[in-house]
Design brief:
CATH architecture of the largest domain: 3-Layer(aba) Sandwich
Strand content: 5-15%
Strand order of the largest sheet: 2-3-6-1-7
Number of helices: 17
Oligomer: single chain
Order of helices and strands: HHHHEHEHHEHEEEHHEHEHHEHHHH
CATH superfamily of the largest domain: P-loop containing nucleotide triphosphate hydrolases
Length: 376
């Protein structure tokens, strides 16, 4: 049982990035705050696995695995290693799902702060008094509901790293308070007149263009220059074609470890489909797709029928010679391609297309689509 738990934990910690979502209002000491942070775990999708297993084990990921061999990814890793042991602020940018929190965790794990806490903060949840209380703490009786003292994230992370995810979402009036803390390196809990020195490294992330927000007076210029000492941009997956198949196989292997089952591999046709897809959800999307493919595959080879239908549809669109086909033409070609991929199995075809078999039969008859002889 212990071995299985460790395998599941390893699976959970290597699944890609996302934001932490922690709410600490009543914790008095640092240990309680860290335990509560672990309970909250990661936000959506696979990250809830870490919340479930990581909290049960009472630990945080210390050495996240970053998968990739493309030139762009290699350059990212080189920059990451060069800044890991520096104490400057780092701004991590990239599209949703590229793994900004995983990169932040990797910076922390490669630094001389690796044995100290890493605390992720989802800035989209912080407004008004809650912002100050969670980040800087409060004393008992500071406001209604403040039944005990609390440290706040910055003091709880003393000696370690605070990761401010989606920092672009912090309201303007609260940005000034964060700037003062970063400049003076002290925090004053709500309701207290005493300031406490802090020794934390601050990593930030945003998927919006902060330069543009500064120009529009939506983000403070002085805070921007304070946090943007080093900018680490994660390229989207569509620009790193060489990383798609290694990532896909990595996530399939993680699923095998999680379920303690034999590994599964992609068929040649499935590999071609993955390489043709543009991956708008980046690493998070490919992790989700491989989890789905693993669960639906009945054999040790993952065929296109187990892949999400949007991946199959995108491959058809890329091959289509007409830039704007009629609806009937588009439906007919998509159904024909799905029937070909499933070797004529109508039940599997209907699942790929997201419709029931009776509707599929009506469309086949209406559009005069030829079903492969092995079809059922």
């Amino acid at each position: 049982m212990q071995g299985m738990a460790l395998l599941k934990l390893r699976y959970a910690l290597t699944l890609g990035g996302g934001r932490g979502h922690t709410v600490l209002m009543g914790s008095v000491n640092r240990k309680d705050m860290l335990q509560e942070s672990a309970k909250q775990g990661e936000s959506a999708g696979r990250r809830t696995v870490f919340g479930r297993i990581g909290a049960a084990q009472g630990i945080q990921p210390h050495n996240p695995v970053l998968i990739g061999s493309s030139d762009l990814f290699s350059g990212l890793l080189e920059t990451l290693r060069s800044i890991a042991n520096r104490h400057c602020c780092v701004m991590i940018t990239g599209e949703t799902g590229t793994g900004k929190e995983m990169v932040a965790r990797k910076i922390h794990s490669c630094s001389d702060r690796s044995e100290k806490p890493f605390i992720p903060v989802d800035c989209t949840t912080l407004t008004g008094q809650l912002f100050e209380s969670q980040l800087f703490g409060h004393v008992k009786g500071a406001f209604t509901g403040a039944i005990s003292d609390t440290l706040g994230f910055f003091r709880a992370a003393d000696g370690g790293t605070v990761f401010l995810d989606e920092i672009s979402e912090i309201p303007l009036d609260l940005q000034a308070k964060l700037l003062r803390v970063l400049q003076e390196r002290t925090v004053t809990p709500i309701g207290s007149t005493r300031s406490y020195p802090i020794n934390v490294r601050v990593l930030c992330a945003a998927n919006r263009d902060l330069h543009d927000m500064v120009r529009k007076n939506e983000f403070r210029a002085d805070l921007f220059y304070r946090i943007n000492v080093v900018n680490l941009e994660i390229p989207p997956l569509r620009q790193r074609l060489a990383d798609i198949l290694p990532l896909a196989n990595h996530f399939l292997n993680n699923q095998a470890m999680f379920y303690d089952e034999p590994a599964k591999k992609l068929s040649a046709r499935s590999e071609r489909l993955l390489l043709k897809y543009h991956w708008p959800g980046n690493v998070r999307e490919i992790a989700n797709a491989m989890e789905r493919a693993y669960v639906l595959s009945k054999t040790e080879v993952v065929e296109p029928s187990a892949l999400p239908k949007e991946i199959v549809a995108a491959a058809y669109a890329a091959q289509s010679g007409s830039p704007l086909p009629t609806l009937d033409d588009a439906q007919g070609k998509l159904i024909a391609e799905a029937l070909h991929l499933t070797e004529g199995r109508k039940v599997a075809t209907a699942k790929i297309l997201g419709i029931d078999r009776r509707r599929l039969n009506r469309l086949i008859e209406k559009l005069n689509i030829k079903v492969p002889k092995s079809g059922g």
